[in-house]
Amino acid sequence: xxxxVLMVCLGNICRSPLAEGILQSKVDxxxxxxxxxxxxxxxxxxxxxPRSVEIASKFGIDITNxxxxxxxxxxxxxxxxxxxxxxxxxxxxxxLARNEEDKKKVDLILNKISSRENLDVPDPYYGGTMGFENVxxxxxxxxxxxxxxxxxx
Length: 153
Ligand code: 4NP
What we know:
Helices cover 40% and strands 14% of the residues. The chain has 153 residues and is of the alpha/beta class. The longest helix is centred in the last third of the chain and has 21 residues, at 129-149. The protein has helices at residues 15-26, 50-58, 75-78, 87-96, 100-104, 129-149; strands at residues 3-9, 32-38, 81-84, 106-108. The protein has one domain (3-147): Rossmann fold, CATH 3.40.50.2300. Helix 1 packs across helix 6 (129-149) and helix 2 (50-58) packs across helix 6.
């Protein structure tokens, strides 16, 4: 059975599509299933933000086939690991958890780099291109740790 990893942000058009694409680009597809979702219903069915598409493409990663979807309680059954991009997403995911087993699957993604500091991947939606570069770098580092820790390489 592959390890099933879900990346979650608010809109599923900026941060989590990048997290999905970056992790996918590093892992053995036989060992890993990666997806992403948003806690909101704002961008269901939409392509990733063009600024995310651009920064991914700059690093040789194509995320254009992704489409926005909303996180649902069924995702607790469909995934082993659920990574929230920020504390607000984290709270909204935990609100849907049915039991301790569901809750144990969820972590803040940057806790993989600096454990217990509870840092947020900043929401780049209202900022400029630099925000997306910054997000890419953080997610690149965090996904290195995830790939290593769960033996997805
Ligand atoms: P994301 O960024 O959560 O990283 O996809 C956002 C995208 C859209 C909105 C907010 C954040 N929005 O308010 O529409």
